[in-house]
Every structure is written in C-alpha cells, then in structure tokens.
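lol forgot to send this yesterday, sorry. struct tokens for the thing we talked abt
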C-alpha cells in the first residue's frame, strides 16, 4: 500500500513509556544508528525540550520516527545530535515519505510552529538508500542553510596515504609507539582539554563524565584507541562505531606525541587493521561557522589519510509555505 494520504497517518509525541518501541525501531531501521537510541539522546536531556515524533500508518504500525526538540517556535531535528532526520525502515517509500511530511507539517501548523529545521542523515549511514526525505524537502521549498564536508575513506576503494603521512607512521614505529584499545578516558581527556584550551580557548563538546557515561551505555559502539610510549599516553582517538561507519569523534595528542607521529600511527592501525572491513571510515567535519569556513590544516590532514568529501546538508522550512496536500500533489501532476 502507498501511504501518501496524511489523513491515514497518526502523529504521536514521544514519552518515556515508548522507549523500548523507539529503540527497537532504530535498531531495525535502514538509516538509524545508536546515536538515535534514547540512552544516547537523553544523556543531556535537560538541555533540550524533547519533541520527538512517532508516525503510525492506518493500521497503527510504526512507520517512521523523528528525533527532535522544540526551540521556541521552531522544531529542530535534534540539535544535540550530529545527524537526525526521519528514521525509517525498509517499508518506507517515496510516496510514503510524502505522506509523512504532509502529516508532520500539518501538525506543526496546527500547533503554532513557524520553522522546521532539519538535518539529514548522511548516506554513508544508510543500510539501503534512504533519501526520500530530501525529495519531500524539495517539494516543500526547504532552503539549504548549511553544508558540512565529512572527510570519508571508502574502504572498498582506498586512496593511498600521502607520503608525509607514511613517513610519520614510520617515525612512530621507530619511536617504539604502540596503539591499544583503552578505557583511560580520564587520562585522554586531559590531553583533549589541554589542546582545545591552548589552541581555541574552547572545551570539548562532551566532558569526561559525559563520555564515560556514554561509553558505559554503548561499550561496543564508543571506543578509545590510545597511542602509548611505554606507559605514557601520547595521544588518542575516540571512535563511534555503527553498522557501516567508524566515525572519529575526537583526535588529540600531546606535544611529544605529535612530534613522534602518534596520530598517524593510530589511523594506520584503525584503517589497516581494526576497520579494514568497515565500509566507511569518517573523520568528521573540518568546517566552522555553519559550513562557511573550511579549516585548511584540518582537511589537509584528513585527506592525507585518503579521505574524500561527503556532503552533510541542513535545511530550514517555513511552515507558512506549506499548505494541505502540498507533497501529495506531486503524484497528481501529469
């Protein structure tokens, strides 16, 4: 059946009683990851006024979910996450997504929202194609407001390391550095915090209490790889591991570790050993100021490991531009 009539769909706001239903749907979805499970989303729930949706079809079967929060007159596809957007399973079709969008837009209009701020889930996280939402955004006249560049290695077609990266790996080996899985988040966070404070007068998004808590909730998804010389930590990398992507969340080394090639050795180990069979290795973004500024040094480092660009788009949609049946009408034109 083609679920394109929004009158057939039911919008529910998430509450804690639906946690198991929500998490089960994420786990069997075609584009969800552990970041979209409630134990991850809610570690900082006091910072966001949750306004997540569960969308059910005419038979009351769960058809899509939307991790989101309310910010004044705007619905944001969750601002506390790197990516959000509609999470769907293999039953989702393009006509179905048009019905979902019309249903959600109707809800927003009836409940006084003025804006829908939407961040997509990059295609590298999709088990099967899941970009039906982009077509619905287009039909609704959504404006592209931000485009970040993810630096991604496609492990099925590896671009070789730059020569300077290879030399740095050799230097690390000569300095007797080694890479290991570690639980010493406290020791590593001292390096992370020191680097951010000295270079940018900033602090990490997660404090050590946050990252330790998240690691305890998702031990097989959130991993610290440390580079040591004897017992001393020279640097490290935190990896968020999902079904198709190993995503780097933090990269940092002490001054001695930088000189000895600690980070290069870690990535040589991760790309060539730990995650050689993972489809994608994502170094994350090198953008600032909503994508308008590219940190040249940072992107050069990541591309030196063979990473190339994947765009991550953010949109804004004025609710006033939507009128009933706007998306569905695309199927009536001849």
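and heres what i got for the seq, position by position
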């Amino acid at each position: 059946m083609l679920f394109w009539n929004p009158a057939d769909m039911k919008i529910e706001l998430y509450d804690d009683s639906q946690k198991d239903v929500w998490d089960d749907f994420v786990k069997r979805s075609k584009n969800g990851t552990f970041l979209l499970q409630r134990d991850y989303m809610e570690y900082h729930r006091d910072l966001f006024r949750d306004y997540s949706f569960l969308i059910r079809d005419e038979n009351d079967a769960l058809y899509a979910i939307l991790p989101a929060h309310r910010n004044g007159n705007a619905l944001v596809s969750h601002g506390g996450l790197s990516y959000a957007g509609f999470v769907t399973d293999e039953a989702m079709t393009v006509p179905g997504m048009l019905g979902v969008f019309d249903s959600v837009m109707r809800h927003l209009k009836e409940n006084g929202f003025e804006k829908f701020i939407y961040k997509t889930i990059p295609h590298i996280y999709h088990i099967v194609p899941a970009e039906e939402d982009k077509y619905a955004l287009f039909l609704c006249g959504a404006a592209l407001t931000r485009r970040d560049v993810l630096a991604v290695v496609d492990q099925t077609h590896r671009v070789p390391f730059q020569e300077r990266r290879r030399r740095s790996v050799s230097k690390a080996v000569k300095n007797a550095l080694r890479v290991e899985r570690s639980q010493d988040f406290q020791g590593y966070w001292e390096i992370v915090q020191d680097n951010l404070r000295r270079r940018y007068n900033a602090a990490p998004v997660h404090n050590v209490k946050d990252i330790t808590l998240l690691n305890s909730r998702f031990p097989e998804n959130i991993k610290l790889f440390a580079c040591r010389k004897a017992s001393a930590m020279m640097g490290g990398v935190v990896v968020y591991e999902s079904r198709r992507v190993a995503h780097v969340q933090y990269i940092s080394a002490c001054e001695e570790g930088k000189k000895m090639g600690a980070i290069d050795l870690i990535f040589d180990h991760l790309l060539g050993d730990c995650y050689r069979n993972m489809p994608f290795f994502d170094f994350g973004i090198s953008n600032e100021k909503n994508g308008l500024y590219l940190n040249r040094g940072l992107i050069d480092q990541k591309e030196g490991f063979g990473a190339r660009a994947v765009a991550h788009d953010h949109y804004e949609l004025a609710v006033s531009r939507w009128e009933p049946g706007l998306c569905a009408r695309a199927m009536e034109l001849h």
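The mean pLDDT is 94. anyway ping me if u want another try
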